[in-house]
Amino acid sequence: MSPGAAALASLLVTLGRPAWWALALTAFLLRGGLVLYLVPIVSFPSPLAVSNVVAPLIVPLALGRIGVEVVILVALTVGGLLVWLVGGWALAAAAEGALIRGVAEAAADEGLEGRVERQPAMTGDGVVRRMLAARLVALVPLVVATGWGAVAIVGSAYVELTRPLDVATPLAVRVAAGAAGQIAAIVVAWLFAEIVGGAAARRAALEGASARTALAAAARDIVRRPASMILPWLATTAPMALVLGGLLFAADTAWRALQVGLVDPNASPVAVALALLAFVGIWLSGLVAG
Q: How buried is 268 (Cβ within 10 angstroms: 0-12 exposed, 13-18 middle, 19+ buried)?
């Protein structure tokens, strides 16, 4: 079967199984996608407000003085991240494992079974633990890159807060420009975690492989056959990112219009109701697209 025919068959199978949409959306939201859906309804502070909040923490840190409030903030942040990674990602692994097994069974029924699409060797908590372990270990390069990049980002933020040369450019853009190399390394590490971690999780779910074996096989695959792993990921992720980005931008526009209508005493109730329906419809469309 040609790749085009296989893609069409996969689309038709997916359309006939709405439960897969719920499983995929659950895994996506629990692994951090929920933040994207909060963007249209969260008002971000102005650069001046950000400076007032961040400067008391950034300046002492850049000068080598770590206060108690910084330690408490870091501890709370790390603790929250650990709870999210262990708890939220475990639920995401359970949803992803159920989806992968469902896809494998459907592929076998449709005669599309391939090299690794076989009956899973394990089910239940064993698969979830192995998938979670594979995902978390794949995050290690991202954690290292983030820790290394945070130093440059803090330094760049300190310079822009204390000695800005271009106040016309937004603060976030100036900080990003000052730590462009480190941010690029973080993005590459994130791509590695997504592609290799996802491939390893599939092996753990389908073959019952241990986290170490699955990660080693996924790492070998991306080194030996990078195009076969990176291109399919880009082909599926890029269109979804464009569609989802457009829907979230539209949801943000509808939300702003709704806010204006709610505070305007002269606004028509019908117009406000239509704006509310538009926002809800666009936002829910974004959930479906995700």
A: exposed
